[in-house]
Design brief:
Helix 5 crosses helix 6. This protein has twelve helices and 29 strands. The longest helix is centred in the first third of the chain and has 20 residues. It is globular. Strands 16, 17, 18, 19, 20, 22, 23, 25, 26 and 29 form a ten-stranded antiparallel β-sheet that branches. A six-stranded antiparallel β-sheet has the order 15-14-21-28-27-24, with no helix packed on it. Strands 1, 2, 3, 7 and 8 form a five-stranded parallel β-sheet that branches. By secondary structure, it is of the alpha+beta class.
Length: 610
């Protein structure tokens, strides 16, 4: 019988003082993070969260904050719930701000990854040793909104018992920045959305081997909607009931979207060897008595309880296992022994209920998104194979941006639909007949999932490509080769063709970057490599090279990546094209002529440049 295990990690944190709560609960008053009224309210909310979970038979991971370690009441409550209910007592590097922290560090910075490396070590030692003083042991789990590789490696070296951490918040880049009136400086894009073992080099990247393993299993800060969050502001779309309220995705005080989103995560077990995961992490600040956003406290409380009710119902029905963070770390390592095993998600639209469908994939080589509302076009590609060491924090030259670079990102550098002469980043296919052409990015379809051995295969439903004199039925397949960094694309022609036939051109338009703004393409080399190798250095001159039977290649030293496209077919042409300053992209393509029913296969692979 096929395994189908849906794991929930429910995390509570006592906050002294709670995030956002000072200005929300005591509007108009001067800042006083030691206010007795504020601390008492935060404590009561934490107690409510713990009791609400236990009443429903759910265990929690209590992530103790630095500020909470100075509260004997919180320490005793955590010990009691650990002994009575089996809750895990963990330590978070969120919640640093308090009078003691301000006095000691003389700063109002609070994001651990933004400090200098020296201060990261000082703070980690301070917090961990205070935790040990209060509880008599060191925690096995920790976390933050984001944890950089330097911090993770330091913690694992100094405190080897730590086995699990919250390490990233999926897709919190410039989209979130714009929708918070340019006031959000935690830039985190291009990382995993599901549990992973980070590389020692960069915490965004899944480890590729035991030697590369940082020693911790990491989980995302929130389980988010892998479609709505990628397309829009991620702060509104996740299994965090109060985030859903912030996005105003409810009616008559009911949140069906939340339950649909949980079910969407449950469904991912069908594609991941029977394993799916979800987490819920709501700090007291989201449940304060003055309300939050436009929602009154009564609705905040109801939404939280409704979420726990649904998890409890699933547990009672044998459809959910609640685990603490350290328990999940052990479980993950047991169930994921192969570092090359990918995490995938075939994701439907649970916000608007349309037929839009994304497929997400990541392994140590790449992170990819295919959009079947655009015929299976690739709309995101991050070159994990490069293993870029991207330090973050004061003194590194990069104080806050943790995003991992992309080669394709249709939301930041447009996709098929571009303005004027621009050419957006995308991987798709052109079908030409005479003077007519159709881009498969315009073909709406859906896909089904399969495994062939260890390879992942996505197959679209048949779709019609229409010309003035003929309509051609086609289907596409995408094969992700296990542990290779290679994706094979197969275009199947299902209809009979006449002698005129069609020209098929598989292409990818790429660049590199971490936001919407163009980076200097100078230094990129474009090559066709067949019977002979021809190359050009990118100079914004719209030049191109084409050769029979050749591999098309882009060498991108800025992100230490080589991108290649080719085919195992006998007759085709490889082509490379450089862009212009107004459209600073490069284009790789493979062209062939088809006169009969059949298929054409091409491959795309990623390699580390050095």
């Amino acid at each position: 019988m096929k395994k189908n295990e849906f794991v929930l990690t429910l995390i509570d944190r006592p906050e002294m003082a709670p995030e956002y709560a000072q200005k929300t609960t005591q509007s108009g008053q001067s800042e006083d993070i030691g206010s007795n009224a504020l601390l008492d309210e935060s404590l009561q909310i934490f107690i409510f969260q713990q009791e609400a979970a236990h009443k429903r038979g759910l265990r929690t991971t209590i992530e103790i904050t630095y500020a909470s370690l100075f509260s004997d009441t919180v320490v005793e409550l955590a010990k009691k719930d650990h002994e009575k209910y089996g809750d895990e007592i963990a330590l978070t590097l969120l919640g640093l701000p308090c009078e003691q922290f301000y006095e000691k560090y003389k700063t109002k910075d609070f994001c651990i990854w933004m400090f200098s490396n020296e201060d990261k070590e000082r703070i980690v030692d301070d917090v961990f040793e205070l935790f040990h003083e209060k509880f008599g042991f060191y925690p096995e789990s920790t976390g933050s909104y984001y944890m950089d590789a330097y911090t993770i490696n330091y913690i694992k070296k100094k405190y080897p018992m730590v086995k699990c951490a919250i390490a990233t918040c999926w897709e919190e880049g410039v989209k979130c920045y714009h929708t918070t009136n340019n006031s959000w400086y935690t830039f985190i894009d291009g990382g995993p959305w599901a549990p992973w073992i980070p590389s020692k080099v960069n915490s965004c990247l899944p480890a590729s081997s035991k030697e590369d393993d940082c020693g911790m299993v990491c989980i995302p800060h929130l389980s988010r909607d892998l479609m709505a969050c990628f397309d829009g502001n991620g702060s509104n779309f996740g299994t965090h009931p109060q985030n859903v309220l912030r996005g105003m995705i409810y009616a008559d005080n009911e949140l069906p979207y939340f339950f649909n989103l949980v079910d969407m995560y449950r469904q991912q077990g069908e594609y991941n060897n029977g394993h799916s995961y979800n987490m819920m992490f709501v700090g007291p600040g989201w449940l304060n008595k003055a309300g939050r956003w436009e929602a009154p406290y009564e609705l905040l409380k109801k939404s939280y309880e409704d979420g726990l009710d649904y998890y409890a119902k699933l547990k009672k029905e044998g459809k959910l296992i609640d685990m603490t963070m350290s328990e999940y770390a052990d479980y993950y390592r047991k169930e994921h022994p192969d570092y090359m095993e990918p995490e995938v998600a075939l994701w439907k639209d649970v916000l608007y209920g349309s037929d839009k469908q994304y497929f997400w994939y990541y392994d140590p080589y790449m992170r990819v998104c295919l959009d079947f509302n655009q015929g299976g076009a690739m709309i995101c590609l991050n070159p994990y194979v490069s293993k870029l060491d991207l330090p973050v924090g004061i003194g590194t030259g990069n104080a806050y941006n943790c995003s991992y670079p992309y080669i394709v990102q249709a939301n930041y550098r447009a996709g098929y639909f571009t303005h004027y002469a621009g050419q957006g980043t995308l991987k798709s296919c052109l079908i030409k007949r005479g003077n007519e052409e159709v881009d498969l990015a315009l073909e709406r379809t859906m896909a089904s999932f399969d495994r062939v051995g260890k390879d992942i295969v996505l197959t679209t439903n048949p779709f019609e490509v229409k010309f003035s004199d003929i309509s051609i039925s086609m289907r596409s397949k995408y094969v992700f080769k296990h542990g290779s960094g290679e994706m094979i694309t197969i275009r199947e022609v299902l209809s009979d063709l006449d002698e005129k036939g069609i020209e098929l051109e598989e292409y990818i338009v790429g660049c590199y970057g971490i936001d919407e703004y163009s980076d200097d393409m100078t230094g990129i080399t474009l090559e066709v490599d067949g019977e002979k190798k021809e190359s050009l250095s990118y100079a914004y001159k719209m030049r191109n090279l084409e050769q029979e039977g050749s591999t098309a290649r882009a060498i991108i030293p800025q992100i230490d990546t080589i991108l290649e496209m080719g085919s195992s077919e006998k007759e085709y042409k490889g082509r490379v094209e450089e862009g212009i300053a107004f459209s600073p992209m490069f284009r790789l393509s493979i062209k062939t002529h088809i006169k009969a029913k059949g298929e054409f296969s091409s491959w795309l692979n990623l390699k580390k440049g050095s």
